[in-house]
């Protein structure tokens, strides 16, 4: 079954074709980073307009890459939420309309389910059950995953998501947008013992997170300093260590809680090198998607949609994006 996947929930237009027999056939991405850079963050209206410009050309590009025509497609998967409503509207309208025109099924995919299943696109995919650590710009979740669609949220951030905390801290330090990867790169030149930041909520029971205090800690430290380039790098280092350590501690706790031996890490912050390194300390098998499938992409949406369509999931032909949508509302496809 050849499925076209469309991702347009935020500032990346991702389109891909996944074949349930042959695997990933084509994958194209357009990032809006340059469009939003001068505003220091994503401008929702500009994002929607750019998705309109880019989605159709990217659909043509993936068809050409896979040497297929529209009539070869057997289903369409699009991100229906969570995300920016205008941006979601674009992918949902194009996906649904194209499916209607081609008389093939379409499926509304949950963006975080896409992230969660992205490691399945790798050569050595994890088997169920596993604990998923989902760390993106909008979410920080520890999920007990029993099967596709069987998700129980064990812990989440009570305030900023990890990616958001990276981005806001980077902005406070005067770093370029998008802050997360820029701060991570700078951290590599920081001195390890210059500062010690707290590990929030690790002394309390439970699996929830809180990252907004770390951001304030970074700001206070920065304002008290001489604001030199080396201090900036030292703060980046201390901030990243605190975040990564906290995630490691909570992942260990979640694995102990379910007596699990497998951890899947996904979402944009999953691309963080230090996090990938540190999680190897767990006595568990740890799975990551390749770097480009940690951040938003069409492949993960095509894949999640393909599994659901293959399992016979059928949906009414309505266009209904959901800017807020909990993973726990999903069901096992039948
Ligand atoms: O999953 P994603 O592409 O989009 C959302 O669904 O939010 O995640 C984007 C987030 C941003 O906050 C970005 O700064 C962060 O992931 N990010 C990183 C790194 N690469 C991306 N954070 C830390 N280190 C990185 N290497
Ligand atoms: Zn995402």
Written description of the protein model:
With 334 residues, this protein is an alpha/beta fold. It has two domains: 2-117 and 293-329, 2-Layer Sandwich (Nucleotidyltransferase, domain 5); 127-288, 2-Layer Sandwich (Nucleotidyltransferase, domain 5), CATH 3.30.420. Helix content is 40%, strand content 19%. The protein has ten helices and ten strands. It has helices at 33-37, 44-65, 85-102, 111-117, 162-172, 179-187, 212-224, 229-258, 273-278, 299-310; strands spanning 2-7, 12-19, 23-31, 75-81, 106-110, 130-135, 140-147, 150-156, 262-266, 285-287. The strands form two sheets. Strands 3-2-1-4-5 form a five-stranded mixed β-sheet, with helices on both faces. A five-stranded mixed β-sheet has the order 8-7-6-9-10, sandwiched between helices. Helix 4 crosses helix 10 and helix 6 packs across helix 8. It is globular. The model has no long low-confidence stretch (mean pLDDT 97). Zinc ion is lined by residues 111, 115, 136, 267-268, 296.
Global mean pLDDT: 97
Strand order of the largest sheet: 3-2-1-4-5
SSE string? EEEHHEHEHEEEHHHHEHEH
CATH architecture of the largest domain: 2-Layer Sandwich
Bound molecules: 5'-O-[(R)-(carboxyoxy)(hydroxy)phosphoryl]adenosine, zinc ion
Radius of gyration: 20 Å
Under CATH, the topology of the largest domain can be stated as Nucleotidyltransferase, domain 5
Largest sheet: 5 strands, mixed
Number of domains: 2
Q: What global shape is seen?
A: globular
State the secondary-structure class.
Answer: alpha/beta
SS element count, helices: 10
The residue fraction in helices comes out at 25-40%
Beta content: 15-25%
